């Protein structure tokens, strides 16, 4: 299942972050890790699922979760 990192807007309240998570769940997403350093969370969707997370009013960015390496 593809995994994504959803970052909410910096001024989003806890209730607005929860609304973004509920929006992901409503689309069939499964919330994984919830971040404390940023207002965001990790979510997985079934392959081929069309999502509208980037259009949610409290979401700043959505990017595919991937491994990051340093040199």
UniProtKB/TrEMBL annotation:
<keyword id="KW-0645">Protease</keyword>
<dbReference type="GO" id="GO:0042144">
    <property type="term" value="P:vacuole fusion, non-autophagic"/>
</dbReference>
<dbReference type="GO" id="GO:0006508">
    <property type="term" value="P:proteolysis"/>
</dbReference>
<dbReference type="GO" id="GO:0004866">
    <property type="term" value="F:endopeptidase inhibitor activity"/>
</dbReference>
<dbReference type="InterPro" id="IPR037045">
    <property type="entry name" value="S8pro/Inhibitor_I9_sf"/>
</dbReference>
<comment type="similarity">
    <text>Belongs to the protease inhibitor I9 family.</text>
</comment>
<keyword id="KW-0378">Hydrolase</keyword>
<dbReference type="GO" id="GO:0008233">
    <property type="term" value="F:peptidase activity"/>
</dbReference>
<protein>
    <submittedName>
        <fullName>Protease propeptide/inhibitor</fullName>
    </submittedName>
</protein>
<dbReference type="InterPro" id="IPR010259">
    <property type="entry name" value="S8pro/Inhibitor_I9"/>
</dbReference>
<dbReference type="InterPro" id="IPR052471">
    <property type="entry name" value="PBI_I9"/>
</dbReference>
<dbReference type="Pfam" id="PF05922">
    <property type="entry name" value="Inhibitor_I9"/>
</dbReference>
<feature type="domain" description="Inhibitor I9">
    <location>
        <begin position="3"/>
        <end position="71"/>
    </location>
</feature>
